[in-house]
Amino acid sequence: MRTEMLIDGEWSKGNGTTFPTLDPATGEVLAEVPEGTEADVNAAVAAAARAFESAEWAGMLPAARAKLLLRLADLLETDADAFARLETSDQGQPLGVSGGFAVPNAVEHLRYYAGWVTKITGVTAPLSIPDVDYRTRREPLGVCALITPWNFPLMILMWKLAPALATGNTVVVKPAEQTPLTTLRLAGLVKEAGIPDGVVNVVTGGPEVGRALVRHPGVAKVSFTGSTEVGREIGAQAGRELKHVSLELGGKAPSIIASDADIDAAVAGNLMGGLLNAGQVCAAYTRFFVDAARHDEFAEKLAAGAASMKLGHGLADDTQMGPVVSAEQRDQAERYVRIGQEDGAHLHDRAPLDDDRGFFVRPAVFSGVTDDMRIAREEIFGPVLSVLPYDDPDELVARANDTVYGLAAVIWSRDIGTANRLAARVRAGTVWINMPPFLDAAAAWGGMKASGLGREMGWSGIEAFTQVKSIWTHLA
């Protein structure tokens, strides 16, 4: 596959400087990728602006634009196994996650938004002014910067790319420097699908590339998924320049286990929700509020399940949990394990690692955690789980909401009425009841509070990449 940047339909090595992307399971270099510069960003934005202004894409007949998105979906599906293996090698997630969830979800998003292309409409409305016809049009924004994270590189890219293209925008994509390879492979499919040059551009590199994109005057919209810290910087810059912005940021999802919950089902669902992708999920279940009478039972079963998980290279058939993405992420997770112990939480037994290659972290389950401990308050983005007892059900909502984050939450109860009343009061963009963290292209996704601004997926994705124009016509 090509590992150069894609700018205006041409592969580019930039100024020749490169950086390595690693296999996190071994630490070995997979490829050298161009280190983009501000000049590359300028060239990519200029190409996207020309493609937008030419109206070759935005002005294309909707059915024709939909056909190209469906063609891209077909190409991705045909190449799904290679994409899954590449995602696993570059990011670390088990093949069951990349091949069974991430790549199919990306294909689903392309097809879902291809279906919207021919259905994006304005409205007519009666005005209290005689002899006037009033209607609206929903129009694309222009050049959109799509800045994607390293935890689900291809899937989260498609959450942004599919609606941006469906609505007629042109884009510059900046993938996370830790995991650029599936984005670059997709760029090759964009060319193969016949999408016009300049509509999709990819610039690789570190944080400076992202900053150059955010501050570029030719960028009309920034869509970013990543840390709350970086999201605040992007939001401030976009606010000063009055750019459109969508931010999907961090989380510290509470999992409320009611006294009547099926404990075994809750343990199984929380293991999946807490340790999916080695806990590198912004909506990971990380704070488990358990009735005090069942706290020890739940914690012991959760710890036993976590300890039994098979760690290994994501390409191995028997791997249940892969490595974290980098040495930095590994060290951060282990630092929080030490912090939890220092703060007085009980760490359940962790099996030793088989070897010291790669960036592996054994799951850590803490019980007897209190709300003020750092492991219960700060986003770790690794396999570190906290079990917190409660005595009074009336305190649950206040404790679950006692966080700066508000991306997701989950409730476990046999009483559906109780579960739904709790769901209505929890401050989170998504609440699951008695289930792991599933996603669907038709379901809106995004956070409250420090977990972000705006929504992706569903009709919300169309709204995120369009603006409304009012047209008045005098009929007399």
From TrEMBL:
Record Pfam families: Aldedh (PF00171)
GO molecular function, one term: betaine-aldehyde dehydrogenase (NAD+) activity
Record flagged with keyword Oxidoreductase: yes
Stated family: Belongs to the aldehyde dehydrogenase family.
Domain of life assignment: Bacteria
Protein name per the record: Aldehyde dehydrogenase (NAD+)/betaine-aldehyde dehydrogenase
Root EC class: oxidoreductase
InterPro entries: Ald_DH/histidinol_DH, Ald_DH_C, Ald_DH_CS_CYS, Ald_DH_CS_GLU, Ald_DH_N, Aldehyde_DH_dom
PANTHER family given in the database record: ALDEHYDE DEHYDROGENASE-RELATED (PTHR11699)
Domain Aldehyde dehydrogenase: 11-471
Keywords: Oxidoreductase
Source organism per UniProt: Nocardiopsis aegyptia
The protein's Enzyme Commission number: 1.2.1.3, 1.2.1.8
UniProt-annotated catalytic positions: 248
